[in-house]
Design goal:
Elements (H helix, E strand, L loop, with lengths): L2 H8 L11 E2 L5 H19 L10 E2 L11 H8 L22 H18 L4 E3 L8 E3 L5 E3 L6 E3 L2 H10 L5 H12 L6 H22 L3 H22 L1
Antiparallel strand pairs: 1-4, 2-6, 3-6, 4-5
Helix pairs in contact: 4-7, 5-7, 7-8
Length: 236
């Protein structure tokens, strides 16, 4: 089944698959400040979709199945050098690109440190919430325009991607206050956010290293390195 049709059926038509409006990447910092709750509303709306009929974790495969039995398996397979396709033998990059083994190992260890907090956190996630992939309509409502990497995982992944994309927008800080305001309980917020951010951040760093995009690599590394202290200040 076509991915868009699958998502449309899964969400009972609650999610607009062909949104019209302005690319979210065009918003100024000031415009995001005024409208960020619409972004958060959208992610929580996605996370509220009933997925009780679906098993597993991970990005949906060609059959729209989440292929991994546990979140830990999802992490392990994502960074498995023996996988087929683009990432086959990817560890060779340690010798030829920006990505270095010591740094990879240190961040991977942090993912696994916080992984138990994300086990059992099964929600529909867009998993591609970079601003260039979102649309804002005239009323300020926000939509995801690309569902190609959707899957089942902790919904904090979608927030972590927002922050990875533009850390200066202070997404986790705003989300923490938003949850308090809306009386939304997010158990183990710090640990789960860090796990999702390190997971996506490390994989995104691999991608930009593979194409020798040094500027993006440096930006991603800076974001990863600063995040834990930001969250420590937030939740202390």
């Amino acid at each position: 089944m076509n991915r868009d049709i699958f998502i449309k059926n899964l969400t009972v038509d609650k999610i607009e698959m062909s949104p019209k409006g302005r690319c979210a990447n065009e918003l100024s910092v000031e415009e995001f400040e005024k409208n960020y709750e619409h972004f958060f509303d959208m992610i929580f709306e996605i996370a509220a979709v009933d997925i009780s009929s679906l098993a597993g974790y991970g990005e949906f495969d060609e059959d729209n199945k989440a292929p991994f039995a546990t979140f830990e398996e999802f992490v392990w397979e994502t960074f498995n050098e023996n996988q087929e396709g683009y990432w086959h033998n990817w560890t060779q990059m340690f010798e030829t690109t920006f990505l270095k083994k010591d740094y990879f190992d240190s961040i991977y260890a942090k993912i696994m440190q916080y992984e138990p907090y994300c086990e059992g956190q099964r929600f529909l996630a867009n998993n591609n919430t970079f601003f260039v992939n979102m649309i804002v309509d005239d009323a300020g409502k926000v939509y995801c325009a690309d569902w190609g990497r959707a899957g089942i995982m902790d919904f904090l992944m979608d927030f972590a991607i927002l922050d990875l994309n533009k850390p200066y927008l202070l997404v986790p800080e705003k989300l923490y206050a938003y949850a308090v305001k809306k009386n939304i309980e997010i158990k183990n917020f710090r640990e789960r956010f860090l796990c999702m951010a390190y997971f996506k951040g490390l994989h995104t760093l691999m991608w930009h290293s593979s194409i020798d995009d040094i500027e993006s690599c440096e930006s991603i590394t800076k974001s990863i390195n600063e995040l834990e202290e930001r969250l420590n200040r937030l939740t202390k």
